[in-house]
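ok trying again, last paste got cut off:
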Amino acid sequence: MLPNHRIGSVVDTQETCVISGEPPIFKNKPQLAADSSGPQPLDINTTGMLRKMAFWRSFRPLYTDTNSRRGRLQTLARWGVRIVYTLVAVECGYIAGLLPDWEQFLHGPVQKSSFIQHYEYEQSQHRDWPRLQWYPIELQQIPKHVIRAVIVAEDSRFFEHQGFDQTAFMDAMEFNLSQGRVIYGASTISQQTIKNYLLSPSRNPLRKLHEAILTYAMEQNVGKKRIMEIYLNIAEFGRGIYGVEAAARHYWGKSAHQLSLEEAIDLAATLPGPVTNNPDTRSRFFRRHREKIRRHLSRDTVAKLSPG
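nice, full thing came through this time. structure:
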């Protein structure tokens, strides 16, 4: 409750009544003289009205001139900020839900990726698609020349960068601009691992943002050798064929540890477009890509495996 106030005699209509030293609230309103018997309390209705007026007056800068162009812009700006904060909060929650348990990610057998699970669903809707072939194995069971061929084909600076290869990105963009269309991407093996393992096949700017954030997080928590092990077990090498072990069995009827150098080059040349470019189709693109990988391997420009 407001304290009792002494009400003075009638004041000039150009002045305002002053209550407890607070800023004037009512203007141009004469006040009746108080009863001579002494101080009179404000009635409940007057007190409530004063409170309401004081409350809304505190928002005066926000509500004045709302019909003007400036007022409308201020309102839109405030709502825009609120919407941005809401979207950021939603995005943070979504990404937090995608983050794996890094300890589990680091150790134990490789789990089915998001892409593999998506293929299983699609295969159930398309009975003409081949059944899933996926046999995860440890990195020690994969020959080093297979690993080197994949690095040459997909990410020559894999052991040097921290998830993102700016040089490759700039080279790819320059070439794509010169051709007037997107021909080459610049995703690193780390980015591809995150995309295949945690995200969906959808193509949109938000997915690329999620991919970048999760790639950075993975690089801070997981070593290069483990990233390579996961990638070689979930990469697609043909419709329904995931991982180097499944590819070796499908194309040559042998285990991955028995693959020759030529077969390793074939596998690496499959990665850009595995459904249409693989050792079975031997498309023109596949053959050209295969020769390019062979030339780079002969120069021995790829770093050897280092402790991850």
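cool. Residues 69-98 form the longest helix (30 residues). The chain has three domains: 1-58, 66-98, 101-299.
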